[in-house]
Specification:
- The structure is a single chain.
- The radius of gyration is 16 Å and the shape is globular.
- Helices cover about 20% and strands about 25% of the residues.
- By secondary structure, the chain is α+β, with helices and mostly antiparallel strands.
- The protein has helices at about 5-20, 40-45, 45-55; strands at about 75, 85, 90, 100, 110-115, 120-125, 130-135, 145-150, 155-160.
Length: about 160
C-alpha cells in the first residue's frame, strides 16, 4: 500500500472514530422551519432528489437538463429554494454535472467527507442542509474552484 493510501485510510478511520464521518448526506439544518422528518422530505421531493439531497447520493453524469442550461438566472436548492449559484459563475467542466466556480455569498456550507476514504470537501445548502455536491481545486479563474453539483439538487429560475 502506497504512503498516500495508508495516510488516507488512517485519516478516514480517525474521522470515523472522532464522529466526523456521517452515513447520511444532509447536514445540520440552520433554519428550524426546514427541520423536516424523512417522511416529510419524501413528500416534498422526487425519489431522485431525496436520494441526493437527504442521502448524499449522486445522479448519473450527463443526466440533468441543467447541465446544458445556458440562460442567465439563478440556481436554487431543490429542497428549500435558497439561491445557491448565479449563472454568471457556471462553466462547462466536461464532467457531466452542472459546475460553478463560486456559490452566492452565505449560500453553502462545507465539511470534509471521507465516504470514498480519500478526504473530499462536500458542500450543502446552508438553510436546509441538503447535499449538493463536492468542491474541487481544478476550476477556472478567478477562484480555481469547481463546485460540482448534482442537477437534481437544483432548480433554475431564469432572469426576467
Amino acid at each position: 500500500m502506497a504512503n498516500w493510501q495508508r495516510r488516507s485510510l488512517l485519516q478516514a478511520l480517525a474521522a470515523a472514530f472522532m464522529g466526523l464521518w456521517r452515513p447520511t448526506a444532509a447536514s445540520a439544518v440552520v433554519d428550524p422551519a426546514w427541520q423536516l422528518s424523512p417522511a416529510q422530505w419524501r413528500e416534498r421531493l422526487s425519489a431522485s432528489a431525496f436520494k441526493v439531497l437527504r442521502q448524499a447520493g449522486t445522479e448519473a453524469p450527463f443526466s440533468s437538463p441543467l447541465n446544458a442550461e445556458k440562460r442567465k438566472g439563478t440556481y436554487l436548492c431543490a429542497g428549500c429554494a435558497l439561491p445557491l449559484f448565479s449563472s454568471a459563475t457556471k462553466f462547462d467542466s466536461g464532467t457531466g454535472w452542472p459546475s460553478f466556480w463560486a456559490p452566492l455569498q452565505k449560500a453553502v456550507d462545507t465539511e470534509v467527507d471521507f465516504k470514498l476514504i480519500v478526504p473530499r470537501t462536500e458542500y450543502h445548502c446552508r438553510r436546509c442542509g441538503g447535499h449538493q455536491g463536492h468542491v474541487f481545486n481544478d476550476g477556472p479563474k478567478p477562484t480555481g474552484k469547481r463546485y460540482c453539483n448534482n442537477g437534481v439538487a437544483l432548480t433554475f429560475k431564469a432572469d426576467a
